[in-house]
Structures are given as C-alpha cells and as structure tokens.
Amino acid sequence: MEFTDENRDVAFWPKDVALRHIAEKRGETDVEFANVWRTSVGRAIDRQKTSIGRHGIQVAYTDGAKTDVGLVKAMPADLEYSVWFWSKDRDKLNRVTESMLFWKQQNPNLDMVYTFLTTDFPLEYDMLFGQIVDESPIEQMFDRGLYHVMRFDFTVQGWVFDTDTLKTIHKVILKVYEDIDPGGPHERDILLFELEEDLTT
C-alpha cells in the first residue's frame, strides 16, 4: 500500500463512516486507504507519582529581567487509538501486517517536542501495542463486493501539559548579629557581617 496524499488516503473518522467519507473526498469508490480514530482518553493514576506530575518543573525565565519563571506541570494520560487499513488486495494487507510487527519492535516510542517560549523539550511517549485484528466483512462479499480490513490498536502513554508563572528571587541578603549583654541594662545587637548573593548571575 502506497499513500501519497494524506488528505485523500487517510480518514480521521471511525470505521463505520470511514468508507463513505473517503469516497466523498475522492469522488470515487476506491477501497485502499487507512483511517484513524482516538477511542478513549483516561488519566494514568499509576504515573501520577512522578515529580513533574505532582509539583511541576521550572523550565525558563519568561522575561529579560528574570522576574518570572515558567512552571510546567503535566498530567499523565493514556490515549487509545485504532487504525484500520482497507484494501481489496489481501496480500497487500498481509505485507502491512508484517511491516507493523517489525515497526512495533523497532519503534516503541513516539518522539515529540514540547515548546515553551523559545525552548524545545524533547519527549518520548511510550507506546503499548495490541493485536492486529482481521475485520474483513467476508460475509457481505456477494452483496457489497470483497474487500479486506485490518485493525491495529495502540495506546500512547502521554502527558497533558499546563503552564504557570512564578515570581523569582533575585537577591538573598544574610545578616548575622550578636546579642550583647542579653537581659542586661545595656542589651543590644551588633552586626557582625552581612552576605549578599545575586541569583540572576
């Protein structure tokens, strides 16, 4: 199967309407395409225990004066998808199945980039793969013609991001005093030394 035009060869619709949708886009009935549909989204509680999920991480200053710093929090989420491959040629789908099996072994991650202001943060989402299932409507071959359908399910262990802004501490001043004549008539504090630390340099 060779897809050359994403708009004409891939339908982002569920299986029940994908065939009609792709035929309307192409202006003809040609059963060789793929369709993708996200079937569910759920919070992954088992991955909520990470520090980025509970507290977030500081990533970059949001202005030149360094008065604000960006805070990114992430909610772990499992996104489940189904992909269907359609063709009248059974052998083509068999080759797709073989290619998918090798792809599952060699590419277990989904590589993406999250951009905050001008800084890019690479992400690797783990992917969990299900079985490749034959959903060909063979029983309808005498009414609608013979075509074949293979379904491929996978789950992306992703994150949903949110950003916030925190005020930053620019300078820390430490003063050390000594209490002279504590409790006496001449009690007073004497400054021994003072330290100043600039955190923006």
Descriptive terms for the model:
seven-stranded mixed β-sheet; 201 residues; two-stranded antiparallel ribbon; 52% strand; 2 domains; alpha+beta
Walk me through what this model shows.
This protein has two domains: 6-168, STM4215-like; 169-201, no CATH class. The chain contains five helices and nine strands. The model has no long low-confidence stretch (mean pLDDT 80). Strands 1, 2, 3, 4, 5, 6 and 7 form a seven-stranded mixed beta sheet that branches. Strands 8-9 form a two-stranded antiparallel sheet. 20% of the residues lie in helices and 52% in strands.
| CATH-defined fold name of the largest domain | STM4215-like
**In the CATH hierarchy, what is the superfamily of the largest domain?**
Myoviridae tail sheath stabiliser
Distance between the termini: 57 Å
| Mean model confidence by pLDDT | 80
Give me the strand/helix succession: HEHEHEEHEEHEEE
- The beta-strand count equals 9
Give the radius of gyration. Answer: 30 Å
Helix content: 10-25%
* Number of alpha- plus pi-helical segments: 5
Q: Runs with pLDDT <50, length 5+?
A: none
Main beta sheet? 7 strands, mixed
